[in-house]
Every structure is written in structure tokens, then in C-alpha cells.
Amino acid sequence: MTNEPLTYAAAGVDTEAGDKAVELMKDAVRRTHGPAVLGGVGGFAGLFDLSAIRAYRQPLLATSTDGVGTKVAIAQALDKHDTIGFDLVGMVVDDIVVVGAEPLFMTDYIATGKVVPERVADIVRGIAQACEVAGTALVGGETAEHPGLLEPDEYDVAGAATGIVEADAVLGPERVRAGDVLVAMGSSGLHSNGYSLVRAVVKHAGWSLDRHVEEFGRTLGEELLEPTRVYARDVLALAQDPAAQVHAVTHVTGGGLAANLARVLPAGTVATVDRASWEVPAVFRTVRELGSVPRRDLENTLNLGVGMVAVVGADGVDAALATLAARGVPGWVLGSVADLDPAAPAEDLVAGTKGVQGGAVRMTGDYR
After folding, report:
1. CB burial readout 79-118, b (16+ within 10 A) else e
2. Do the Cβ atoms of 132 and 173 come closer than 8 Å?
């Protein structure tokens, strides 16, 4: 036993490293601040001026929180940390816009075994850049050093965001009717869901992350780290265009396409999704083949190339597709909504997911 005094640094926490990380990231964070953000970086709480709320007749606040799952293991293995922020912002902010809400501001939380200022700054810069894409202010955050709980090179990220929407502009099942059409928005890849399955498949196949894959035109690691497409402004552009007749929007995350689509359909309706309407990107085909993954598991776990779906009126399809094309988002007609036939077989329907007793989804045909 020694009589040497124990310090916080000796216990594994370096507060000076945290301060350096803030200095490295603060310019990127400031770029997300419009005139509504008050104060600077480093305060106890972020302040956002809500004076504009006076223009709303019945404003509703929307909020969401999420993380990026085990995709962080890929970033850590490749020692590349400047893209994981897009995954975080996409997972959080795009859950808000599905109700038609404009995301106002976001906060983040990073837990790590050891604060490496440059690594933390890379993560936050990515978050800030994605917030710029989404039109969302990054008003605060926290970096926590957890020695003994996490390894020095390990970290996890999470975030929360708040948005606002006029009560009579809320999108959702109440607006959906039989005859509506499903308009898909293409994903940029795996996004941030299903990485436990993907990593298990890669390990089973014995593939290394630096393996060049011809179908990808790059290494496996580069493909797996492809950042999530952030749809916030694209979805809001659709929702605010009367010609597009947007009734509901779903974000295809954990659970796959059918399960998330069922959540935004009213009871008594069924959406039929035509698998032949799009070509599944190479990364999903590779996961299926390497792991002999059953189609049902793939559909219940991965987005398979569909990142968001808008449910629009039949007369709004052309306008919706034109808006997406103008914004550089791949879009196509995925299927349609009809009244549910009580006599139809139920075994091929997906319904009652995430605790929501709404509509149902039927996947038909085969992928191209």
C-alpha cells in the first residue's frame, strides 16, 4: 500500500483532454447556429429562441432520441470517426420529420474509455456537418470518460432532438386512405441498423475490413462505414408541397421496411409492396449470400435499399417524384394502399409492430 495521493487523472479521467476536444470541435458546432441559438459552446445548457413560435396557431413539439448501434465497432476498427455523426443525426432527426415536424435543435452524448481530443472532435464534427445538412442547430453535448467500464479506444454515441409542427399539419395514419401510393426514397446503404447481423456474417465468412470487394468498388470496411443519408430537408420539402399530397412518412430503421411502414397505416388498411420495383444494392446481396441469411431475416433487419417511404395521394405521385429527383434523392413507386380484405390470408402480413396496432403490410413478388 502506498501513501501517494490519488488524483482524478490517476483514476483515468483527463479533464484537460476534454477541454482540448471542445476547442477542436467548437468551430464546426458554431456553424450550425443560426440567430435563434443564444450563447456559445460550453455552457451548462443550450438556449434556443422560440419567438417564432408566435406564428403558429397550435404548435406541437416533437422529440426523439437514438444511437447508432454497433456500427461504432466498424468506425473503431478502421480508426475513422468523422462519418458516424451522420448516422447519429439521421437516426434521430429523421424520426422527427416523419410527422412533418421541422427539427430545431439537437444535443449529443459521447461515452468513451479515454478522451482522445482528436477522435472526439472528429465525431462531433461529423455530427455538426450532418446537422447542417438537416438544417438543425447543435446546441449542446457531453463527453464522458468511463475508464474501467469502456476500453480506451471504445466509445458509444447517442443524441436527442426537438422539432416543431403545426397541429393541423401533423402527418400520420389519420390522413392515409385506400388508393394512396407508396413512394420510396433510396438509402445510401446499410445506414445504422442490423450491424450485429452484418458483423456476425462478416466474421463467419472470415472477411477482413480491408478486403477489396469488386461489387462495391471499394473495401468492405469503406462500404460498411458509408454514412446514413439524412433526409430531413427532403422530407420537409415533400410535406410542404401541396401538390405532393403527402399523408404519412415512415423511416425504415430497426425492424425493416414492412414493420416500419405498418406503423403509419390506419387499422383496416394494407399496403402492398412490390419487391420487383427496385434493385437491392450489392451490400445487402453480399450479406445474404455470405451468411445464407433467409429472406425473412433480411427483410426484418435491414432496409434493403429503402431509407424512407412517403404515403401520398394518387394524384401527388408525379410531384413527389419530381421533388425527390430535383433534390438528388432516388425515388420510385413502391406499391399502394388498399382496404384490408378480412378473408385474405394473414400469414403473409406484417402488422402490430412496435406496440402499434395500425395497418398491415404485404410484401409481394421477387427482387430484381
Report:
1. eebbbbbbbbbbbbbbbbbbbbbbbbbbbbbbbbbbbbbe
2. no
Are 161 and 293 contained in the same domain? no
Direct distance between the N- and C-terminal alpha carbons of the chain, in angstroms, rounded to an integer: 69
Cβ neighbours for 230, distance < 8 A, ≥ 6 positions apart: 86, 89, 90, 93, 94, 130, 133, 134
How far apart are the C-alpha atoms of 47 and 231, rounded to whole Å?
25
Measured between alpha carbons, how far is 213 from 203 in angstroms, rounded to an integer? 16
- The domain that holds 74 is classified in CATH as 3.30.1330.10
**CB count in 10 Å sphere of residue 125:** 19
pLDDT along the chain (368 residues), means of 10: 61 67 73 80 78 92 96 97 97 97 96 93 95 94 91 96 97 98 98 96 97 97 98 97 98 95 96 97 97 96 98 98 98 97 82 80 94
129 and 211 in a single domain? The answer is no
pLDDT for 367 equals 94
- How far is Cα 239 from Cα 172, in angstroms, rounded to an integer? 11
Please choose, from the candidates 170, 316, 322, the residue with its C-alpha nearest in 3D space to the C-alpha of residue 243. 316
What pLDDT is recorded for position 11? Answer: 63
Q: What is the DSSP letter of 45?
A: S
254, HSE (Cβ side, Cα atoms, 13 Å): 12
Its pTM stands at: 0.92
pLDDT of residue 347: 76
pLDDT of residue 4: 67
Same-domain pairing of 289 and 354: yes
Q: Would you say residue 1 lies in a domain?
A: no
Same domain, yes or no: 155 and 272: no
Residue-wise burial string across 302-325, b where 16 or more C-beta atoms lie within 10 A, e elsewhere: bbbbbbbbbbbbeebbebbbebbe
